[in-house]
TrEMBL record:
Residue spans binding DNA: 25-44
Organism the protein comes from: Planotetraspora kaengkrachanensis
The protein's name: TetR family transcriptional regulator
Coiled-coil intervals, chain numbering: none
Ranges where the HTH tetR-type domain occurs: 2-62
InterPro entries assigned: Homeodomain-like_sf, HTH-type_TetR-like_transc_reg, HTH_TetR, Repressor_TetR_C, Tet_transcr_reg_TetR-rel_C_sf
Keyword Transcription regulation applies: yes
GO biological process, one term: negative regulation of DNA-templated transcription
Length: 225
């Protein structure tokens, strides 16, 4: 990445941190860098390209995380998921951006490839890898976006808790679990439990493929005869 383009992306990140993502514009970035808006177009073609570059910059930090090709596939996915959550906790606006922009920059594509490789190493059939990558990405980014927006906030502000206190019969599911809705939520523990569930799902897909591809007893007997 050229020095000026890096400076432009740094400026966009700073503006988003200070004033929110809606404040990021070509003019605002140009003012921060100290150039005319037209001068930006040599490095980013338009605002969409600017936002794609910001996504790439955010995801490049995932590649700098502790994930290592020598780790087991589950550890690599866990490391990547925790790094993504850490990014959105540092930059709450980033969850929506990561959720809404395609992975098109080199760093973004490499981050997705880490997931592809981990799934392949887990024994997931190639045809199932894109689907499971989308499931994992949607969960991690959705959890991060919900956490950043306060959707998971516990206590009296939680609309789920209010609905759970409605009269019996209105919402039977909420009424039945009402005592659990008002308990404090440990989002870190919940995130770990969710990742464990996803790992078991991946293992189930891989096992299902092994069973499906295994030769039938008749085939095995014919091969050994």
């Amino acid at each position: 990445m050229g020095g000026r383009r890096e400076e432009i992306l740094d400026a966009a990140l700073s503006i988003a941190d200070e004033h929110g993502l809606d404040a990021v514009s070509m003019r605002a970035v140009a003012d921060r860098v100290g150039v005319t808006p037209m001068a930006l177009y040599r490095h980013v073609s338009d605002k969409a390209a600017l936002l794609d570059g910001v996504v790439g910059r955010l995801l490049s930090t995932l590649l700098a995380s502790d994930a290592d090709a020598g780790q087991a596939w589950g550890e690599r996915l866990n490391t990547l998921a925790h790094a993504c959550r850490a990014i959105t906790r540092r930059h709450p606006w980033a969850a929506h951006l990561l959720f809404s922009r395609p992975a098109v920059t080199p760093d973004a594509v490499r981050a997705v490839d880490v997931i592809y490789t981990a799934l392949l190493d887990a024994g997931v059939p190639e045809r199932e890898v894109p689907r499971l990558e989308r499931l994992i990405s949607t969960f991690v980014l959705g959890f991060a976006a919900s956490e950043a927006s306060g959707r998971f906030a516990p206590g009296p502000v939680d609309p789920r808790g209010r609905r759970g206190r409605l009269p019996d019969g209105d919402l039977p599911g909420h009424t039945r679990i009402a005592p659990w809705l008002d308990l404090p939520v440990d989002l870190g523990t919940e995130f770990e439990a969710d990742l464990d569930d996803i790992r078991r799902l991946i293992e189930a897909v891989a096992t299902r493929a092994e069973v499906k591809d295994a030769p039938s007893p008749e085939t095995a007997r014919s091969a050994n005869s």
